[in-house]
């Protein structure tokens, strides 16, 4: 299967943090969600995908090409959305379009105006008067208006009201209908990923915890509750994380079938959400908003 982005043994070091030995491959025609706590390294990985930061070592290829020789061709095919402001506050959206449109060979002015109308964005109003949600909508309208093959999104629904968040997800689903588009998005709103993601990549402390199909996660990850007397050095090996309390234990497993065969009716088994997986994987610590 064709991979739109490949990262091989990528490393990036900062003063107090590093992304270590990241190897990932993102498949064409699918939605991949990237999750992890604040400072996990997700934004750094996304910036290296876009060549906004360069790895200290390792290889990043997009559409089978290398940024060193094909940066313009690569970025022409990418629509990107960041939670932070990337547009000029002193310009109107109309003027933003005049600057941005020539950068893309397939810029579609009719499509841009269609999205501006859909999102109720004023073209002749300076960006500094836009709310955070309006700025995000403007960024989205631009990203959708040049027939990109790949969409890379860092907190795309940040600042959006619940109604538009639902509209956004519907737009993403429409984009994916032809099977040729690819979406990579980082978000702390796990319900968004549950509704549209085909794959989930979990990043923590600069390393990949896992990169799995959403179906695999839903089928195999589970929360298990039972009496403390059921635990010993052998049974605890079936769990990724165990919390012991006065009333018994709570644990996370990635093999619900094996746990059910082992414990039977002596435990309660429930499907684990993405929030559960992050919470228990960090030893039961409260998970902060995703960066």
TrEMBL record:
The keyword Nucleotide-binding applies. SMART domains: AAA. Residues 5-230 form the ABC transporter domain. Pfam families: ABC_tran. It comes from the Bacteria. InterPro entries: AAA+_ATPase, ABC_transporter-like_ATP-bd, ABC_transporter-like_CS, ABC_Transporter_VariousFunc, P-loop_NTPase. Signal peptide: none annotated. Keywords: ATP-binding, Nucleotide-binding, Transport. GO terms for molecular function: ATP binding; ATP hydrolysis activity. This is ABC transporter ATP-binding protein. It comes from Sporosarcina luteola.
